[in-house]
Amino acid sequence: MPYRPIAALSQAEGPPQGKLPDAARASAGAGRYPALLTQVAGILRGILRDPDLAIEAATALDDIPGWDSMVLITVVVEVECRLDVMFEATEIDSLRTAGDLADAIAMKQAQRAV
Q1: Contact 99, 29 (CB under 8 A)
Q2: Helix axes 98-113, 22-32, angle to 10 degrees
Q3: In terms of CATH architecture, what is 24-113?
Q4: Quick one: pLDDT at residue 81?
Q5: How much of the chain, in percent, has pLDDT values that exceed 90?
Q6: Long-range CB contacts (< 8 A, 24+ apart) of 11-20?
Q7: In 3D, which of 55, 75, 73 has the Cα closest to residue 64?
Q8: Mean pLDDT of the region 10-37
Q9: Domain extents for the chain?
Q10: Residue 31's pLDDT band (cuts 50, 70, 90)
């Protein structure tokens, strides 16, 4: 699929293949994958034992109370187990927001479906 800006894609087309351009990454998780973002938020709330934790696509992972490298690894392992995806170390290192994680999951699921 040739590159088209996120705004030009309909949700029915599914996630773009490959890495999202930096300009598109900030808003992609917000509206494109709300079900995945909801799952990510639930996983974060469960691991951090904070049912009231507010998570949105733009939520920076480093800004989440209690966030550290061990929480990151725990979240990644939980996502991999629950959603049947596998991440490379470089992919994990590029996660900055909850939306980034939702986007990465969507791309992994799309690659698996092909």
Answers
A1: yes
A2: 80
A3: Orthogonal Bundle (1.10)
A4: 96
A5: 68
A6: 14/106, 14/110, 15/103, 15/106, 15/107, 15/109, 15/110, 16/107, 17/107, 17/110, 17/111, 18/107, 19/107, 20/103, 20/107
A7: 55
A8: 54
A9: 24-113
A10: low
